[in-house]
Amino acid sequence: MFALLSFIFLLIVVIYIKSPRLSENEPPLIPYTIPVIGHTFSYLFDTENFIKKCLKEYGEPFNIIIFGKVTTVVAQKYIPEVTKAHENFDSFEVLKEIVPLHLILDYNPFDIIDFHAKTTREQLSGKLSLYFDKMQNDIFYSLDKWIGECNEPRSIKSIWNVCNHVTAKLIANICIGEEASQHEDVVHSFAVLSHDMNRFFFLPPFLSFIHQKLHEFVISLPFLIGFNPIAKHKKVLINRMKPVVENRIQQKKILGDSYKQSDDILEFYMSQPDFDPSNVNYNYLADLLFFLIVVGIVTTGRSLANLLFDYAGRPEYWDELYEEASTFNEECNGKLTLNDINKMIKLDSFIRESLRHTGDMIIVPRAVTTDHYTFSNGYTVPKGRHVYDFSEDCLFSESQYGPDSKSFKPFQFVSQNISASKVDRTYVIFGGGRHACPGRFYAVLVLKLILYHVILKYHVRTENGNMPKKSMVGPLTNPPEESLIFERRKET
């Protein structure tokens, strides 16, 4: 009896503490039935219908309760406003709660976000012309390794995993150079690192009903007590990276000003003022690279998997895409350049449409970092409030894409001359404004190059000839789990 009374008392205390306390002039709070839990289950298991119903009845913005926390939702009308107010919001504050890397890495990556953005902008997206040839070589290698010649039809399973390994090979070369990236254990670590971490980090935050910090502590606990999947990947990376770093340090001593820097991100890290060649902090270098991997490879690999399914499941567009690809291939005599790939407007439009149909309901959640933020309609939200963007409302805007906005129209951007990497008010797949993803130019180029070479080399189809559905995980999607059938394209 005492235990039961104690539990009831504790429950009452939690409900009291977690009861929403809205500040003055906040957006309306959607009515709910169960204290603390609020709208959690509707949000997780019926995201689209739930948010659309809220928008219809209350307009935007509005407040809901998810895992015991008041969250503000914006849609098509206010997403551009929030995107422009970059001084008031920070998406990494939300990422820090979902993926608390600062608790398990040797340094806090969220303290140097500007450095990571600079690295991505200047050393990745800013050097695409330098990386172009080796990116193609890595694609040739990966297609041969993971798909093969396919002289007879071959069923390829786990397409997302294959795509992660293909993109991992590309980014490993750019991150740590040709020599280190030739080792399969490095590529494998790059490919599966995020998946290994997500088994812990993407557990539903049910403990957030009590307190957010409790959830962060529990999901980080396995890492802190030694059950750390990062440790084995870090060991692999350092083992392959160390000889390269030591050799470069030695070459710098010998050659002095005649030393020629390598075109990779590791060289950029070694050129930083805080790099000490006499006492190299390999853990720090590995952590820098791991952050880029976590925020980059999974999203690019997932987009590539979605793109391959969008292509394979829609045979009515194969001929047009092949005609464009083969025409450019003939004109450049098989030696494709960055300028050539950028001229393929149908390929680019197809990729932009595939990204528009990613299926995610929420793409860039943000947290208020100033004392408060006041929307243009007068509603105010306090510091620390999470603001979720109902991105689908933009991506399928009928005013922009027509009454059939949810239809897959792969060549609709051809006449508009809009690149797949260009963000605007309704194309928010990469965020927007000053904080739009700096790696989007690299990611789009990866998608273009791989699909281009796939189109030239293979016929690709789905198992049943139709476009399979993606699986929903709360407000997010995963690529279809079906196999794809690859067959070598016959010479004509």
What does this protein structure show overall?
The protein contains 19 helices and twelve strands. A hairpin with a 2-residue loop joins strand 10 and strand 11. The strands form four sheets. Strands 1-2-8-5-3 form a five-stranded mixed sheet. The protein has a three-stranded antiparallel sheet with strand order 4-12-9. The chain has a two-stranded antiparallel sheet with strand order 6-7. The protein has 492 residues and is of the alpha+beta class. It folds into two domains: 113 residues, no CATH class; 350 residues, Cytochrome p450 (Orthogonal Bundle). Keywords: Heme, Iron, Metal-binding, Monooxygenase, Oxidoreductase, Signal. This is Cytochrome P450. Belongs to the cytochrome P450 family.
Summary of the model, kept short:
By secondary structure, the chain is α+β, with helices and mostly antiparallel strands. It has 19 helices and twelve strands. The protein has two domains: 23-104 and 361-391, no CATH class; 105-358 and 392-427 and 429-488, Cytochrome p450.
The rounded Rg comes to 24 Å
Largest sheet: 5 strands, mixed
The strand order across the widest sheet is: 1-2-8-5-3
Overall residue-averaged pLDDT value? 89
Distance between the termini: 82 Å
Family: Belongs to the cytochrome P450 family.
Pfam families: p450 (PF00067)
Binding site for heme: 437
Signal peptide: 1-23
Helix/strand layout:
Blueprint: H1 2-18, H2 40-45, H3 47-58, E1 62-66, E2 69-74, H4 79-84, E3 89-90, H5 91-98, H6 113-124, H7 128-146, E4 154-156, H8 159-181, H9 184-201, H10 212-224, H11 229-255, H12 265-270, H13 282-312, H14 318-331, H15 338-342, H16 345-356, E5 366-368, E6 372-374, E7 380-382, E8 386-389, H17 392-395, H18 398-401, H19 440-457, E9 458-462, E10 471-473, E11 476-478, E12 484-488
Parallel strand pairs: 2-8
Antiparallel strand pairs: 1-2, 3-5, 4-12, 5-8, 6-7, 9-12, 10-11
Helix pairs in contact: 7-8, 7-19, 8-9, 8-13, 9-11, 9-13, 11-13, 13-19, 14-19
